[in-house]
Amino acid sequence: MENNNKMTTNSKIALPVSREDDPGVLSVIYRFFKKVAIVGAVYLVGYMQWSVAWLIGPVILSVMRDQWRKESEYRRNLAKTAAMSSEKDIVLARLDDLPSWVFFPDVERAEWLNRIILQVWPNVNHYARTLLKESIEPAVAESLANYKLNGFKFERMILGTIAPRVGGVKVYDKNLSRDEIIMDVDLFYAGDCDISFILQRIRGGIKDLQIHGMLRVVMKPLISKIPLVGGLQVFFLNNPAIDFNLVGAADILDMPGFSDILRRCIVEQVAKMMVLPNKLPIKLSDEIPTVDLRMPEPEGVLRIHLVQAQNLMKKDVSMLGKGKSDPYAIITVGAQQWKTKHIDNNINPRWEFWCEALISSRKGQVMQCELWDWDPGMGIQNDDYLGRCSLDISQVVRAGRLDTWQTLQQAKSGKVHLRLSWHRLSTDLLDLSHAITETQLVKNAELSSAVVSVYIDSCRNLPDARAQSRPDPYLTVTVGKKTENTAVQMRTDSPVYEIGYSFLVQNPEIDVVDIKVLDQKTGSQLGQLTYGISALLKQNNLIMLNQPMNLQKSGPESKITLALQLKILKEAIKEEDFEEEPAAAEADTLPPAPAVAPAAPAESTDGPASAPLAAPAPPANPAINSSNAELKNMDDSIPSTVSDDTSDKSIPVEHITQAVDMPLQEMPSERESPKLVHRVSSLTTSAGEAGLGRILLSLRYSMQNQILYVVVHKIMNIPLKDPTNVPDPYVKLYLLPGRSKDSKRKTVVVKDNCMPEYDEQFEWAIPLAELHSRQVEVTVATHKGFLGGSPVIGQVLVHLNQYDFREAKTLWFDLLPESTPRD
């Protein structure tokens, strides 16, 4: 055996070097000049007597870039592997990549659909090339021009062999009209595409493109002839997650900040095409009028009032150390986005900013608010991130009005105060005067009283801008301060557009719809139409169907065919008829800081601590405060469903979530019909098993956003060992395993109190597959310690695998002696 090994070793050593292993002359020359370039650069720096920062700076940037590239490449390769694998392989390989049908009982498997997509994928390449060249390319080029990046153009567009995958399909069967089918498709694409482009005369490419989002498909109207469906409306409920890798000469731009510009421009163009309220309509039957498919149909308006923020992170650096921040906010609802002004040097800014969002689907859409620290530069990529919060619009729909404090995610500290109201749309003229009066009550805000939808079918007999040359016409549609531009129709005097838009209207009695027909080649105006919206008030159901109208400042026979519809904003009330599927409604929404009992003092649905010594912001809504005062004075006539004196470490309140799950605005009043509501007592006479007190927590997990919510309500019966030394308690939370600063959360400190109240909500982003392997460590400590220390009063370890998170849980926990290492 030993001889054989020696022979094998000797044979390996004796093998001659092949020509393929020879480095070659070109390789040697390349390495020689590379070394000369490095030595020459060092010599040049010394000869010119430049600072050493000229060497250290590029090295640091190169190391940071390589590290960022490795992390991004790992994520892309992981996603691509999941896209290429079968569903069975994914289930056996990684829990994180399980399809959505595993987690959601009402989502169906779609492996059959994935096989169909894989079969037709080669035929999709032609359509995708046309879409990229005709729609995406000019829009991205125009967007990049705002950053002084000109000359963007696609060269090669190959989608590759990896088809998109569908993680699951959910078909709705409740609250639908008879002539439509609605289904949600969990779409994920991580392909091997090969797309090349030119930017600033630099050739580059895009590879490892990834898109993940919830795609909704609406089939309407249903007809009695083949194909049984008149048309499709395809759109994303919210902005999809898009990622890619830059290659070629543009690889130098593939760094955080530079690549964000290109990524942001691509996301903006996708949002303009098929993120609500924008839809991609597909006509399947000639029997269906195009206006029925393409006329916008908003369900309502979400009115957003961003009041203020508190205790934001300090990102600026001053001469004396850590300074403050210059915060501003970006509010996003689907493809709609608003940006506030920045407030200098303030971590408790007050904006009083108003905006209104058109909502086309109240089921599934999310409002997101991001906070940034403003820094002068090329754009948002230079600004520091201060955190974000998100809110399901369905929660506002059910409440009608919602006044809430939201704790910022991905931030060490900070809260945002939001007031939201939901307004349905009506065709009753009696609602108009009330809607206009309501908008006039709010000063320094241009609020709307109605919504006008405009559908433009076509134009005919447009004049030629130049002799012997047909124009390239496009339209601009303006209502108030908002303007929409249609696509350009090349070389025609009778363009067909078939496109619709929705606009918010301040006062329908005086506002107008202004449409201009422009020639792209010459920039000249080919015609104009000014239509007074007040004319719709005289129409039946406030709608005017397709009707040709003469264009002003145009040819004698130039006409435009359009349809208009007006709807009036109706006063915000609780939506009694709005129902969601029980599993989705209970799993996807968490009312911030719910009122757990009539006797429990609460300032708002998620306001600051209501204890007088907690130093929160002053209340901002007198109406809500008065209702809270009435709530405080009410007697708790309904007996508690659990005993407060039990010594269990935690008392699950399985049948009490109805009351805990309600925001303050949803609590039944005396005027309403009596309902059976079970409530958990917010008081306890027990000091717990260890005699250290008890803490009241609410737990909920949002399966849609994959976020764990924990609300710290109050602590009862903290032992007072020394009457002269009353504790200053606060609560500190960690998400285990992995005690880190990113997983740490902390409440405010309540001075001199043995029964502090907080009502603070905290959030962690956790994949559903990891939820049952995590724990939440809750520690109660006091600031009154020796030499400024924080002695621990008690501690609770909440094992998340012990709870069914399909509904909210509100639990009393006994505080136990500290058993885990301190910070």
Give me some keywords for this one:
eight-stranded antiparallel β-sheet; 4 domains; 823 residues; 33% strand; Immunoglobulin-like; globular; alpha+beta; disordered N terminus
Question: What this model shows, in words?
Answer:
It is a single chain. The protein is built from 14 helices and 35 strands. It is α+β, with helices and mostly antiparallel strands. It has four domains: about 210 residues, no CATH class; about 130 residues, Immunoglobulin-like (Sandwich), CATH 2.60.40; about 120 residues, C2 domain (Immunoglobulin-like, Sandwich), CATH 2.60.40.150; about 230 residues, Sandwich (Immunoglobulin-like), CATH 2.60.40.150. Strand 20 and strand 21 form a beta hairpin. Helix 6 crosses helix 7. It is globular.
CATH level 1 class label of the largest domain: Mainly Beta
User: How many individual domains?
Assistant: 4
Shape: globular
Task: Characterize the main sheet.
Answer: 8 strands, antiparallel
- Taking the alpha carbons of the first and last residues, their distance comes to 58 Å
- In terms of DSSP E residues, the strand content is 25-35%
Percentage of residues in helical conformation: 10-25%
How many beta-strand runs? 35
Q: Examine the secondary-structure arrangement and name the CATH architecture of the largest domain.
A: Sandwich
Annotated CATH homologous superfamily of the largest domain: C2 domain
Low-confidence stretches: 1-23, 90-97, 577-679
> Radius of gyration, Cα only, in angstroms?
31 Å
Structural class: alpha+beta
Overall average residue pLDDT: 76
What's the CATH topology name of the largest domain?
Answer: Immunoglobulin-like
User: How many separate helices?
Assistant: 14
GO molecular function, one term: phosphatidylethanolamine binding
Membrane topology: Peripheral membrane protein; Multi-pass membrane protein
Subcellular location: Cell membrane; Endoplasmic reticulum membrane
Domain C2: 283-406, 432-553, 691-813
